[in-house]
Design goal:
Chain B: Belongs to the Casparian strip membrane proteins (CASP) family. Chain B: Residues 20-173 form the Casparian strip membrane protein domain. The complex is a heterodimer of chains A (156) and B (199). Chain A is mostly helical. Helices cover 71% and strands 8% of the residues of chain A. Chain A contains 4 helices and 2 strands, in the order H-E-E-H-H-H. In chain A, a hairpin with a 2-residue loop joins strand 1 and strand 2 (39-44). Chain B contains 5 helices and 2 strands, in the order ααββααα. Chain B has a two-stranded antiparallel sheet with strand order 1-2. Residues 12-17 of chain B have low confidence and may be disordered. Chain B has helices spanning 2-16, 19-44, 74-99, 109-140, 155-187, and strands spanning 47-57, 60-69. Classes of the chains: A mainly alpha (156), B mainly alpha (199).
Chain lengths: 156, 199
């Protein structure tokens, strides 16, 4: 049972690495520009601190996951992996929440604050950010299952 | 007679020993409950109204009333819901600690507490970070998207929101410590040994 759990956990970690890599790549390569009247309107992920935080958070979580796959046999402090997995889950949840909050404002605008939606002018940027956020959300959900499985492996 | 007194003293001392650790966890949970409840209440009652004179028709000025409410922003709504759920969770855990020592759910009590604590930490962190970045956007605006900052017009709204955010981050740190302590309690749980003799 413990062996099946370990294989299952490692497969999930590989999926989580894939999801975080997709999220980071699609966010970093998303830029678009449009000409509105005589103004150039560019959109890049680095113009928003929330998207920068998202990229950094996903990168840290992805790096940690790769390290944890390599260290998945019983070393001295293998029980510490539960706490580190929890920190990674919290980081992923935090990154995706922040990015989703700002992306929602970018897509729908905020009539009360006088902020116009941006997606109409830079559709390519919005599409890539959508794919990136979906991958980030999948990474967060997968990581929660990884956390449950490592809790089960440690408690048994 | 002296030996009996010593036995009584020893039994009394050993029953007092687990209490200091239990009180530490209880105090932390109480603090986290107050922090998240304060964040919920302060953000939930966050509202500011401003009246502006838009035009003057003859001698009567036409006033427009603009409000800033937390419901206008989905991030703040999520913040209020997340902190509300977290304070409910802490309240239930405190009640369970104080009054429900006998409930065990087939030996899974510690595991359930650890899992629920981890879920609550993830929830609070999501709510706090979404509200924090939304507040940063409201304070600084975004020149690239032509979004103006709103904090200079609605100063009280921004101040109260900032206070709620600080309370929520304090609650997040406390919940992280509580969650780590719950996991440690789960890890050092003494395993039942079939060879011990029950006195």
């Amino acid at each position: 049972m413990a062996k099946i759990n370990k294989i299952f956990s490692n497969i999930l970690r590989l999926l989580a690495v894939a999801a975080t890599v997709v999220a980071v790549v699609f966010m970093v390569t998303s830029h678009d520009s449009a000409q509105v009247l005589n103004l150039t309107f560019t959109a890049k992920y680095s113009y928003t601190p929330a998207f920068k935080f998202f990229v950094i958070g996903e990168a840290i979580a992805g790096g940690y996951t790769i390290v944890s796959i390599l260290l998945s046999f019983k070393t001295l402090f293998w029980r510490l992996i539960v706490i580190l997995d929890m920190v990674a889950t919290v980081l992923l949840a935090s990154s995706i929440s922040a990015a989703l909050a700002i992306a929602q404002v970018g897509k729908k605008g905020s009539s009360h604050a006088g902020w116009l939606p941006v997606c109409g002018q830079v559709p390519h940027f919005c599409d890539q950010v959508t794919v990136s956020l979906l991958a980030g959300f999948a990474a967060a959900v997968i990581y929660f299952v990884i956390l449950l499985s490592s809790l089960y492996a440690v408690v048994l | 007679m002296a030996l009996q007194n010593e036995d009584k003293l020893e039994v009394g001392y050993s029953s007092l020993q687990p209490k200091p650790k239990k009180w530490v966890l209880l105090m932390l949970r109480l603090l986290a409950f107050f922090a998240t409840a304060a964040a919920t209440v302060v953000m939930g009652l966050n509202k500011e109204t401003k009246t502006l004179v838009v035009a003057t028709v003859g001698t009567t000025p036409i006033k427009a009333t603009l409000t800033a409410k937390f419901q206008h922003t989905p991030a703040f709504v999520f913040f209020v819901i997340a902190n509300g759920l977290a304070s409910m969770h802490n309240l239930v855990m405190i009640m369970g600690d104080l009054f429900g020592q006998k409930l065990d759910y087939k030996g899974l009590r510690l595991a359930m507490i650890a899992i629920l604590d981890m879920m609550t930490v993830a929830l609070i962190s999501g709510g706090a970070s979404a509200a924090a970045f939304m507040a940063e956007l409201g304070k600084n605006g975004n020149s690239h998207a032509r979004w103006n900052s709103i904090c200079d017009k609605y100063k009280t709204f921004c101040d109260h929101g900032g206070g709620a955010l600080i309370a929520s981050f304090a609650g997040l740190i406390l919940m992280l410590i509580i969650s780590v302590m719950s996991i440690i309690k789960l890890l050092i749980k003494p395993k039942p040994d079939s060879t011990t003799v029950v006195p």
